[in-house]
Structures are given as structure tokens and as C-alpha cells.
Amino acid sequence: MRTFEDLVDEAAHVDVSGWSFHWLRGRATEDRPPWGYSRLLAARLARVASALDIDTGGGEIIAEAPRLPARMVVTEGWRPNAERAHRLLSPRGVDVVAVEQGEPLPFPDAAFELVSSRHPVDPDWREIARVLTPQGAYLAQHVGPASAFELIEWFRGPLAGERLSRDPEREAAAARAAGLRIADLRTARCRMEFFDIGAVVYILRTCVWWVPGFTVDRYRPELERLDAHIREHGVFVSHSTRTLIEATRENG
After folding, report:
1. Distance of CA 68 to the CA centre of its chain
2. Which segments of 3-157 does DSSP mark as H helices, in order?
3. Which ranges of the sequence are coiled-coil (predicted)?
4. Disulfide engineering: 68 pairs with which of 72, 116, 157, 213, CB 3.0-4.6 Å?
């Protein structure tokens, strides 16, 4: 295996915009939930005339769909991702809208038959319900509770309180309070494997909320210990959690 310094230096300078994670091939793996979110979303997009994808990242999931509705809109709050999504999706007629996190969605009431999101930052249920047409649906894959916490707590220490966040039942209750009916709610725990310390640096630079303020220099002791663990055991294992949620707006 390459040296610690070589691995972390490479990972500290590689481009981490977008959500494709191609750079991690052969260096890290993550099992996928059994429901196949990309496949489910592609099937729904083919059956509606209008759709909105929230927190689209670099637009990779929407780009995978072979058929898009006549009106397809995506939103993204981080400018490098929004620019990447524009390059990827604009040739297919998709409107890419830059938004500020926490601000109301800049669309009229009942504007979309389908609202979707893979790993939304903080879903605003009232806004989602507002922009859905009557009988419209929300289909999303959320991050579940205590996701990747073996890795996160390696750097931050025990986070007992934060383990309670992203609870699917509480998210479902918030959706109901906004006037949505829950049609499906499932959670899966998925194995993650990291085969070198560069993969860890890459993922922490990408998922910046996992270890806020992460830099190689700031967390060098933790990185060196984790590098030694990977060299001894061949892998560092963590687990992500994912929640599939589908909700419908039944009333006008």
C-alpha cells in the first residue's frame, strides 16, 4: 500500500463536487438498499408530466433516468454542485435552480406531480406539500439514523444525542402534520468498507457535515490511527442507514 502521506495528499486535492463518487472505485464500497431507489425514481419520472428533484447534488440521479417529464426541475444549494448539474442536465432540457438552504421553494402552489430527493439536507414538509399537485407524490431516499457513525465517532467521539436524529417515524409524523399521507416507509442498514485512508479523506471532504471543519492537519492523529487500523485489518467497516419514504398529497 502507498504511504500515508501520499494517500492523504492525493485525496486532499482531488475534486469532490457532485455525488458520483467514481473516484472511490476500488478504494471503498457501500451496499445499496434493497429497494433500488434510482430504478424506482426512473419509473416514476416516466409516468408524470412535471417533477422537481430537491437537493439534486450534481444531478447524477436524474441524469440516470432514461425518460424525463416534459417539465423537469432540480434545485441545489451548493454552487459547485449546481454548476455541475447545469452542465449535466441542461442538454436534456432540465431547469437547474440554485436555492438557499432553508428558504421557501421558488415555485407556485401545486406545480409538480412528483417531488423527489435522494438524501435531502433537511426536508421542508410544508413546502413539499405546497408545491405538489392534488394526488401528487413525494418519493425520496433519506439518510437514516446514526448513519456512518462508526466512522464519524472515530473522529468526533461518542455522539449519543445525534444518534437520535433522522428518525424515520419522526420524519413521517412531520410529513403527516404538513398534510401528506405516508404510503411507504422502510429503513435499511448497509455495510460500508474503506480500503485506504485516502478514501476516508475523500468522503469526509465530500460529506462535510459528518466531521465539521475537517482538514487533514486538524485530524492528523485520528487519520494516522485509522490508517494503521486499515493496514492491519485490510479494511475499516462502517454502516450507513437509508430510509425510503413515499407520501402523497390527497387533498386540493
Report:
1. 20
2. 4-13, 37-45, 60-64, 79-89, 125-131, 149-156
3. none
4. 72
Q: Are 37 and 187 in contact (CB under 8 A)?
A: no
117/137 Cα distance (integer angstroms): 12
Q: pLDDT tens across 144-169, in order?
A: 999 999 999 999 999 987 877 889 99
Beta bridge partners of residue 236, listed in sequence order: 194
pLDDT tens readout for residues 7-60: 999 999 999 887 778 899 999 999 999 999 999 999 999 999 999 999 999 999
Alpha-carbon distance of 50 to 221, in angstroms, equals: 50
| CA 146/CA 85 separation, integer angstroms | 29
Q: Which residues contact 245 (CB under 8 A, 6 or more apart)?
A: 138, 139, 140, 141, 142, 168, 171, 172, 175, 182, 184, 185
Cβ atoms 4, 197 nearer than 8 A? yes
Q: How far is residue 83's CA from residue 58's CA, in Å, rounded to a whole number?
A: 8
The answer, as to whether pTM is greater than 0.85, is yes
How far, in Å, are 159, 169, 215 from residue 165 at the CA level? Answer: 11, 11, 25
